[in-house]
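Run log // design_07
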């Protein structure tokens, strides 16, 4: 069995060839929805809600704290590797990656690298950790220890009010 070596140039060609058509005049055909195999929902969660510690402030001065992030695909993780901004500055990788998987922040649904760039550093750090937990561990819970009684318990990092589950 031969392996195919993919360079950054080849990857770009592959991504362009497999991208859906975006002709505004033509309707994009959608494949028929597949029926569930067993008729049961398997509970695969692909989108996770979060609440930013500080919040994103848009051009109008509105603060947006609640948002959603979807699970990353292999393409999401490969695409930043061929981004020129990432090649020039590897630290920019997390900005590009987060902009691809965040589906909304408040009423902002067009989340792009410029939006992530304008976020506070604490919010970006929160989203990086949230991304890692969701995509590596499959959940948003973290084990913590009370500093007073040293009792252990879990908290949900996605946000919400104290006492909510």
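design_07 sequence
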């Amino acid at each position: 069995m031969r392996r195919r070596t993919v360079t950054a140039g080849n990857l770009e060609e592959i991504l362009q060839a497999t991208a859906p058509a975006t002709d505004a005049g033509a309707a994009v055909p959608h494949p028929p929805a597949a029926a569930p195999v067993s008729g049961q929902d398997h509970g695969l969660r692909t989108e996770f809600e979060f609440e930013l510690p500080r919040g994103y402030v848009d051009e109008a001065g509105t603060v947006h704290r609640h948002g959603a992030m979807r699970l990353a695909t292999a393409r999401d993780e490969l695409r930043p590797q061929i981004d020129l901004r990432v090649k020039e500055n590897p630290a920019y990788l997390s900005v590009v990656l987060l902009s691809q998987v965040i589906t909304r922040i408040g009423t902002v649904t067009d989340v792009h690298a410029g939006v992530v760039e304008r976020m506070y550093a604490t919010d970006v750090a929160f989203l990086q950790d949230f991304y890692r937990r969701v995509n590596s561990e499959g959940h948003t819970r973290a084990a913590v220890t009370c500093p007073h009684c040293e009792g252990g318990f879990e908290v949900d990092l996605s946000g919400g009010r104290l006492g909510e589950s």
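Confidence is low (pLDDT under 50) at residues 1-7, 22-40, 161-165.
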